[in-house]
Amino acid sequence: MFDVRPTGSGEEFGDAVYAIGQYFGAPLTEERIERFSRVLPFERMHAAFDDGQIVGGAGAFPFELSVPGGELRCGGVTVVGVYPTHRRRGALRAMMDTQLRDIHERGEPIAALWASEETIYGRFGYGLASWCGEVTVAREWSAFALPLERRGRTRFVTAEEAASLFPPVWDALRRERPGVFQRTPDWWALRRLRIPDEEQANPRRFVVLEHDGVVSAYAVYRQHPAWGDGVSHGKLEVFEAVGATAQATAEIWRFLLDVDWYATLEASLLPLDHPLFMLMSNPRRLRFRVGDGLWLRLVDVGAALSGRAYAGDGAIVLEVHDAVCPWNEGRWRLEGGVASRTDEPAQIALDVDALGAAYLGAVSFAQLRDSLRLEELADGAIRRADALFEWRPLPWCPEIF
Ligand SMILES: CC(C)(COP(=O)(O)OP(=O)(O)OC[C@H]1O[C@@H](n2cnc3c(N)ncnc32)[C@H](O)[C@@H]1OP(=O)(O)O)[C@@H](O)C(=O)NCCC(=O)NCCS
What we know:
The protein has helices at about 10-25, 30-35, 90-105, 160-165, 165-175, 185-190, 245-260, 275-280, 300-305, 350-360, 365-370, 380-390; strands at about 5, 45-50, 55-65, 70-80, 110-115, 125-130, 130-140, 155, 205-210, 215-225, 225-230, 230, 235-245, 265-270, 290, 295-300, 315-320, 330-335, 340, 350, 375.
């Protein structure tokens, strides 16, 4: 049996984070512990102890996550790992149990994560709630379908300037789409704008697009020059490009696609309904590859269902099964945007991970039914549920955390 509790010192924090570090990193220095704990407080980092030794860790960033029509407090689950010496003995299960109880007690109705492997988190009630993908476009295929009138001006900014110029654009994205978490000033400084040591010789660039002096889009990108046979094989890597309006999004992408020298431009984590697909003259040439994006868990089913907006006015009665968080078990009636307990007969029966998959509006109840993930108990229930839950634009989480 593992003893799981929050870390209480820099040393414990470092050892717990080093559980994931066992798979791709060096032990944390004091400086890295100090930096990381500014976005992940010690008490949000759980450690699994075996005989007094830390052998696993699981963290949860205190997020506000945009959901359809609003935002909710959310445990942003991160740095989950178990030392290879202690794998498959129940350490992860013990940490997930304790962490979900902690998230619940803190009043965070949902939890979200990026999964290193799709097989891990369904058993703990997380559902695959969004899709995203990578594009690789060759320079010669970068034309837009329609002429673009450029109304804004681009200019480079320093990381310090970016810290105040980028957030309003990010906040516009949070208002527009589900799946975007709020970034604190520390998050911006330490996670998005900091130039890592290995980039010092050729660091990422920060650029803003301004319309009438107001920043309407930004991009973070890096060039990887390479030459062979006298021609460029270089790559332009887009870390993040966000626009507050459709015009601004088109213009910032035009800027990126027009940078000289690169042979291919790469960007990742783009949602399936990203404007780029219809902006391009040859969308096939983006060579889009899709994978799973954000996974979502309803930690408090009632608060989570009542915390998002719905497209339609109907009502639905759901029977939710939740083996890990038993307080969610039972029948819930959703009507007028409010979920409450009910004794009425259920119209759909499903596990909480399937409900998590449907929650952000990217996965339909019809798809879940066809994938044998739920049971329709009343005629038309799936259609009614989809009319309620469907949401556009699709969720987009532009950063892995
Ligand atoms: C993934 C990881 C945390 C699992 O830890 P663990 O302590 O071995 O897991 P547990 O023993 O608690 O297993 C709990 C259950 O999950 C299953 N499981 C654990 N890891 C799994 C994996 N990678 N793939 C499929 N199933 C897995 C176990 O078989 C067990 O299933 P059961 O409840 O049906 O018996 C650990 O293998 C690890 O650190 N991996 C590398 C880092 C990583 O991928 N972290 C996740 C980051 S998102």
